[in-house]
Amino acid sequence: MDEEKYKARAERMITRWAGQRITVNRETTDEGDVMRHAPPALGEFSEQGGLYIEPAKALPILAECEVLVVGGGPSGLAAALAARRAGADTILLERFGCFGGVITTVGMETLAWYRYEGTVESEGIGVEMERRAAQMGGAIKWPYNDSQCLDADFFKVVADHLVREAGIRPILHCLAVDVIFDGDSQRLKGIVTESKSGRQVILANRIIDCTGDADIAHLAGASYRKTPKDKMLGVTTVFNASGVDKARFLQYTEEQPATYADWSRTWDQETTGKEDVLRSPYLDKEFDEARRLGVIPQNTTNLGGSWSALTEAGEATNLNLAHQNGIDCTDVMDLTKAEMQGRQEALYALMALKKVVPGFENAKLRNFGMTLGTRDSRKIIGRYNLTGDDVRNQAKFEDSVGIFPEFIDGYNVLILPSTGRYFEVPYGCMVPLEVDNLLVAGRCVAGDMVSHAAMRNMMACTVTGQGAGVAAAVSLQQQTTTANVDIALVQAELARQGVRLH
Ligand SMILES: Cc1cc2nc3c(=O)[nH]c(=O)nc-3n(C[C@H](O)[C@H](O)[C@H](O)COP(=O)(O)OP(=O)(O)OC[C@H]3O[C@@H](n4cnc5c(N)ncnc54)[C@H](O)[C@@H]3O)c2cc1C
After folding, report:
1. 193 vs 67, 95, 97, 177, CA distance in Å?
2. End-to-end distance of the chain based on CA atoms, in angstroms?
3. What is the whole-number distance in angstroms between the Cα of residue 321 and the centre of ligand 1?
4. pLDDT given for residue 21 in this prediction
5. Is the CB of 376 within 6 Å of ligand 1?
6. pLDDT score, position 34
7. What pLDDT, on a 0 to 100 scale, did the predictor assign at position 2?
8. DSSP conformation class of 263
9. Domains of the chain and CATH, by start
10. Low-confidence residues of the chain, pLDDT below 70?
11. Which of 54, 61, 68, 214 is most buried, by CB atoms within 10 Å?
């Protein structure tokens, strides 16, 4: 072996012992062989320990566009559709292999279950998505009102159709991991991604953060708040069962009717009173009975919640029954713990149902949601921070981008909008303070805990998504930034798209 080769091998051995990861540059030959062609740059560990300093690296540009929407959930779909319909060349980027967010990846089908008689509904892309799913045969009526349970798997196809028809440029299996500023300004001009293709760059004139966790705002250094861990809304492992005798189960729910008063049986819940008499697809005391019978461990205290669609094929989907508290979903070790524990808890829930709930005797696990369901994480500090008072007192805003009914579900408050009351959603709650050409839509918009219990709902996420998509496109047409966009022009385009603003 010549001296050069020997030295290179010795260097590789030393860096491997030091725990350093070496990036290798490669070249593809005409025959398709991938050949190493240059030695990699080496990083180093910080003197204090605990940090590895990555070497600088040149990244290929994957794509360029006018509006980049990061995250393909209810808010991201609405944002991309709205931006495209307003004329912008739009990319919708998603870390998983499908669009739909919590609908398709967690298995939550109930986009508008709050829609009891008397509700004044938001109008726009959210309702359009619900109708479209029903038209395509991918929805079943929710048990106790006229809203639809979206078939979670089928919604992947509904979303594909919406994206394709609109001419949105889709990118799946791609995680946003960093941001790029325009020189030393406060304006964003791109992101860094990671995927099977490696680390790449997407350049965009406007970016809309629809990651649910405000990942982009966080990476850009914008201010945000997180609910203290002990008060955070719980995470849930949603699962689906097959082998359910639908008729027997429905008979049981008629004999043992649950209402929203039952929700508060085990905790102190505030309602306005009208909720307490409304029927609810709720199971909870059944788990007490299973514990009493010794079917499941005594420490399984966080079981209970809603069932949703029942199919003629004997499936019970969207079983929202196995929860955990004290989990921070921006912490990878918390996520790991909760995914594994959640699967165990969901199996306990199914064991209990099989033993004590008529119709479930022969049920079996069909599948878990693709991922754990997060309700609560980062919320930006915005130009305007929505409050519980705004939601409860029919707030009006000059910069309204849509309305949402007075529906609050979280932090021990349950208010259903059967009174016809609603509030306006301000543009300001999507505008981060320190970073420009970035808008934040969906569950991570600015606001306090009670307003989050309203704004986190999927239909509300589509309201902010559509507002952000239109604002991004209009700011481009006006050649201004998202912080300075003329709200009257944004509202005019939203009205043209069928959104109710006041
Ligand atoms: C168990 C559970 C039950 C719920 N029940 C209901 C209900 O009955 N009705 C209701 O209206 N709401 C319900 N919610 C709330 C609602 O589903 C969510 O708040 C809502 O989906 C949030 O929408 P979003 O678009 O902001 O985010 P998400 O739906 O979370 O979508 C975010 C998307 O961004 C992607 N993403 C995240 N980070 C990155 C990144 N860095 N790069 C690329 N992609 C990324 C994610 O994969 C995801 O697809 C429930 C939530 C949970 C967890």
Report:
1. 16, 9, 15, 5
2. 78
3. 17
4. 54
5. no
6. 75
7. 62
8. G
9. 3-58 (no CATH), 63-227+380-496 (3.50.50.60), 234-368 (no CATH)
10. 1-26, 36-39, 265-267
11. 68
